[in-house]
Design brief:
zinc; seven-stranded antiparallel β-sheet; 3 domains; M48 family metallopeptidase; four-stranded mixed β-sheet; PH-domain like; alpha+beta; about 325 residues; 11 strands
Length: about 325
């Protein structure tokens, strides 16, 4: 089999019309009808075929042959284990490239939207108990830079803790013992941390007009603990951060990622689905303990009145108060 093209002598830029004769395992190079080089297929070197760029065939003595068309040396490419003409056509097919890009984007989106949350849900339950406790303590240490010492009377704090201890005896077993922490702040809020801690801010305690109203909020946070929402979100955020860090080459410890993600989540809130799930846990607990969920609806109304400005529903991680109030009052 003969293939036409051009050849370049060793260490020279001049070229000549040439052809190679492929006979079994022997390759002969002829330049201007004179044989200038000969070698075996094993000693022959072929450059990678990229797009429509010509393939360069290099001989051991320095001669280089470039065929007129890459398809003419397709048999050499296949013998040397390189990409065949068919594969090169597939790689240069713009439609297939477009479909591949769309497929990759769809897979990335599906992994982020469904794969990571699914994995995080189960991973949060597989972690040793010491990890959530440690992470929760470290998150609280960082958040304490924003908070002040609580001014709630010690007797009132003790009474709240006693009620929570009784709740734990009446409700499904918690993955961690619930501990109530009090902190001073200028906002009415409460949040659960990994490891079982619930932080109540003074304005929230002072806003509640009855023990039942405050208990509704506490039970809501216990719902987050029961479903391990915080740890699930932290694993999800940390996993995403680790993947991005790995791609950029900036890797660090997963536990440190969790602590940083925990502070972020505390400032941005959990997902709406998690908030609704915690609301339902609290509602069922209120019905079991107090035989009514009306105090929770009343507390939501008080919190709604406390909002200094309206936040659009699509910007809030919580379901809007109207939806939550209606949910509490449904039979």
């Amino acid at each position: 089999m003969r293939v036409s093209g051009v050849a370049y002598p060793p260490r020279l830029s001049q070229r000549c019309s040439a052809d190679i004769d492929i006979s079994g395992e022997q390759i002969k190079l002829c330049c201007d009808h004179q044989m200038v080089s000969q070698t075996s297929l094993e000693q022959l070197t072929l450059s990678d075929s990229v797009g429509n760029l010509p393939v360069r065939v290099s001989f051991p003595d320095g001669w280089v042959f470039v065929p007129d068309q890459n398809k003419d040396i397709d048999c050499l490419l296949q013998k040397k284990g390189r990409k065949s003409l068919r594969i090169r056509k597939v790689e240069s097919n713009l439609w297939l490239i477009f479909v591949s890009i769309v497929f990759c984007i769809a897979m990335l989106f599906a992994g982020y939207r469904y794969g990571i949350p699914w994995f995080s849900h189960y991973a949060a339950r597989m972690l040793p108990d010491g990890v959530p406790v440690f992470v929760g303590e470290k998150i609280l240490d960082q958040l304490d830079e924003q908070f002040e010492t609580s001014h709630i009377p010690v007797q009132q704090q003790q009474a709240i803790r006693k009620r929570v201890a009784l709740f734990q005896q009446q409700l499904p077993p918690m993955p961690f013992p619930v501990q109530i922490e009090f902190r001073g702040s200028d906002i009415a809020n409460a949040f659960a941390l990994p490891g079982g801690k619930i932080v109540l801010l003074d304005p929230l305690v002072e806003l509640a007009q009855s023990d039942q109203q405050l208990d509704g909020v506490i039970l809501h946070e216990m719902g987050h603990i029961y479903h391990r929402h915080m740890m699930t979100r932290l694993v999800e955020s940390s996993l995403t951060a680790v993947v991005v860090a790995s791609l950029t080459g900036d890797t660090s410890g997963v536990v440190h990622q969790m602590i940083g993600a925990g502070v972020f989540v505390m400032n941005t809130g959990l997902s709406r689905d998690m908030e609704r799930q915690a609301d339902q846990f609290a509602k069922q607990a209120m019905l079991k303990i107090y035989h009514t969920s009306e105090p929770m609806a009343a507390m939501f109304e008080l919190l709604q009145q406390q909002q200094m400005r309206h936040t659009p529903d699509w910007l809030s991680s919580h379901p809007n108060f109207s939806e939550r109030i209606e949910s509490m009052r449904q039979p």
